[in-house]
Design a protein that fits this description.
CATH architecture: 3-Layer(aba) Sandwich
Number of helices: 3
Strand content: 35-45%
Radius of gyration: 14 Å
Oligomer: single chain
CATH class: Alpha Beta
Distance between the termini: 35 Å
Number of strands: 5
CATH topology: Trna Endonuclease, Chain: A, domain 1
Number of domains: 1
Helix content: 25-40%
Length: 119
């Protein structure tokens, strides 16, 4: 698989994992000029923005290390645009990361909290 196919496969695995946990997938690959959201889901009354990082091997700090502060800012700005465009009903929002390595999947809830200046 090439990098794009690996990423798409990881996003599909992540969506399946969330659905098994009872989440409702609201959007996949939501894109704006600010960036892209891999998955947008609903966990009861919480709107969840999910970044999926898939790697074929662990190096350079693993998948989570790839969610840098700059990447977090892009995700938060894109999440703001998603909310403006879609006006979803929710009580809270959360930013999760799903890390996928061969034979290992980790769902990190509240992986980061954007600052007010980010949004």
């Amino acid at each position: 698989m090439n990098t794009k196919q690996t990423g798409q496969h990881g996003e599909e695995l992540a969506a399946q994992l969330l659905e098994k946990k009872g989440y409702q997938i609201l959007a996949r690959n939501f894109s704006t000029p600010q960036g892209e959201l891999d998955l947008v889901a609903c966990d009861h009354t919480t709107l969840v923005f999910v970044e999926v990082k898939t790697r074929t091997f662990e190096a350079f700090g693993g998948p989570l290390a790839a969610v840098t502060p700059a990447k977090q800012r892009r995700i938060a700005r894109t999440a703001t645009e998603y909310i403006k465009i879609n006006s979803p009903k929710f009580d809270s929002i959360r930013f999760d990361v799903i890390c996928i390595l061969p034979g290992q999947t980790e769902h990190i809830e509240n992986a980061f909290i954007p600052s007010r200046t980010t949004l």
